[in-house]
Amino acid sequence: MQVKDLADISFLKVLSDDATLDNEIKDLYTSDLLSWVMGHVHQEKVALLTVLNTINAVAVATLLDMSAIIFCEGVIPTDDIIAKANEEGIAILVSPASSIATAREIIKHEG
Amino acid sequence: MNELSLYLLDIMQNSIKAKATLINLDIIKNIDEDKLTIKIVDNGCGMSEEVLSKVLSPFYTTRTTRKVGLGLPLFKELSELCEGSFKIESKVGVGTTLTATFRLNNIDLPPFGNWVDTFYILVINDEDVDIKYTHKVIKNNETKEFVFDTIEIKNILDGMSIKDFSLMQWAKDYIKNGLEEIDAI
Fold it and tell me: What is the spatial order of strands in the sheet that A46-50 belongs to?
């Protein structure tokens, strides 16, 4: 699955540059404790679902070679987060739904 | 890091990497004010104003193996999440002082975790680095205090290594009992 496939889900909105649309997503991970994410994500190209509106989320995504961050529950990332994510080639998406509801929809969409 | 002890390990290891020979660690659990204060003062090489202005950015690191440095940014984030504050001061050739506060009853404040073992890892990490650890508990206007000072311990040991196995067990029990006595953790 690629980021552009997620754009087909009606309630998901991509905020990062078009260059991130081709990012491949191999798995999803949801957590709101970044240090926990650092210790438990052992795969590349994961999409992180979180409500943590912080530049540290982009740093962790960079460290772990993640492909996307999906800010859930209506959290809108600040401009500096989006700019840094674009610089690092990480897709930024937003969802009004909870992390689990968003993940459920993505899994359903993937078939 | 889901334990405060792991944050402290990471940050105090920064002091050791900065060639500190003395680290003062003060932890104050003020139940009356619902506040936890953690202060780390080292006499390491210190940081220039330029480095200090970047050190809280997760995309700044002195490491060459990766492009992000998350120890300080995550600790700062945790203190803010727990309705506290975070301050870091540094001067080249003098050292660095870090002060973080947390609201004790904040639901997101992680536990200390295995603090005794974690602290002792720091003690034996480098025998040339001395650590003066003071833990205070303030309750009903009464202050109880536990102090573990490696300079004092080394004086008593008179040349025996602080890494000696029999001593390690004694020291860990001493710290554990001392902290339990003042209801620190």
Answer: A13-14, A91-94, A68-71, A46-50, A27-30
* CATH code of B27's domain: 3.30.565
- Which domain, by its residues, includes A83? 3-110
Interface of B with A (CB under 8 A): 1-2, 6, 57-59, 66-68, 70, 73-74, 77
So what's the ipTM on this one? 0.72
**Least Cα separation, residue A24 to chain B (angstroms):** 22
Dist CA B84 CA B33 (whole Å): 12
Distance in Å, alpha carbon of B56 to nearest chain A alpha carbon: 10
Residue range B36-40: mean pLDDT, rounded: 98
Provide the domain count of chain A: 1
Q: What is the pLDDT of residue B52?
A: 93
Domain range for B8 is 4-181
What is the tens place of the pLDDT at every residue in B124-183?
988 899 999 999 999 999 999 999 999 999 888 888 888 888 888 888 999 999 999 998
Distance, CA of B14 to CA of B74 (rounded, Å): 14
From the CA of B8, how many Å to the nearest CA of chain A?
14
Stronger pLDDT, B115 or B65, i.e. the higher one: B115
In 3D space, the residue among A62, A59, A91, A71 whose CA is nearest the CA of residue A30 turns out to be A71
Number of domains forming the structure of chain B: 1
Provide, rounded to the nearest whole percent, the portion of chain B with pLDDT above 90: 77
Q: Is 0.90 topped by the overall pTM?
A: no
Which site among A51, A55, A56 would you substitute to test the B interface, given the most B Cβ atoms closer than 10 Å to its Cβ? Answer: A56
The whole-chain average pLDDT of chain A stands at: 95
List the one residue out of A42, A39, A84, A77 whose CA is nearest residue A59: A84
- Residue B78 token pair: 């945790």
Chain A residues within 8 A of B2 when measuring between CB atoms: 33, 35-36
* CATH, residue A59: 3.40.1390.20
